[in-house]
Amino acid sequence: MNTIMRKSVLGIAGLAFTGGVFAGPVAAHADATPVAGKPVAVAVQADKPGVDKGKLIPHGVQGAQSKITLNGEQTGNAKAIIAATKKAGLPERAAVISIATSLQESKLENLGHLGDANDHDSLGLFQQRPSSGWGTPKQITDPEYATLAFEKGLKQVDGWQDMPLTEAAQTVQVSAYPDAYAQWEQQAADIVAQHWNS
Questions:
Q1: 102-128 burial, b for 16+ CB within 10 Å, e for fewer?
Q2: Where are the chain's structural domains?
Q3: Residue 61 is inside which H or E element, if any?
Q4: Where is the signal peptide (predicted)?
Q5: Is a pLDDT exceeding 90 seen at residue 105?
Q6: Tens digits of residue pLDDT in 116-130
Q7: DSSP symbols for 113-155
Q8: How far apart are CA 77 and CA 64, in angstroms?
Q9: What is the 3-state secondary structure (H, E, C) of 44-58?
Q10: Which helix (H) or strand (E) is 39 found in, with range?
Q11: What mean pLDDT do residues 171-176 have?
């Protein structure tokens, strides 16, 4: 996405773009290998009543999938993303996109400043930057605030519900590795299916 379009999306979403190239830079420790490939239909593992599995991964996953074992803190952060998504009145698909984005950006860890390993001033679950208008350091290290800020940007993307996950996430984040979000879609969908109604 070009810079003018990015500024328009952030402006519409109420997020100021105040310098820097990326509004949602990739965390220094995130896997930078782009994932490519054709959609592959994969079933969501968890079976909870009330979760429409077809809406979690409507187009099938793109390319090879990655998975990590979550600790208690990471699971708590995933649940916070789901709670914020519900608070925003958004459907399960928004939670899948949000969790996959956080898995890529921070592995669902609420990261503080990483010093020299940090990408600019990126913080929190989504590696949002105070200098790019996402909020104060205190705000963007609050899981609810960070999720609502990400999803506010997502809601301003025309047709986000029908986009492949990596395209929707990239439109908001503007990462240097735009295809990397796709590898987390299956795990994000499994997390949402497991915790949406818990």
A1: bbbbbbbbbbeeeeeebbbbbbbbbbb
A2: 3-195
A3: strand 61-62
A4: 1-23
A5: yes
A6: 555 567 899 999 988
A7: --GGGSSTT-BBTTTB-GGGTS--HHHHTSHHHHHHHHHHHHH
A8: 24
A9: CCCCCCCCCHHHHCC
A10: strand 39-40
A11: 89
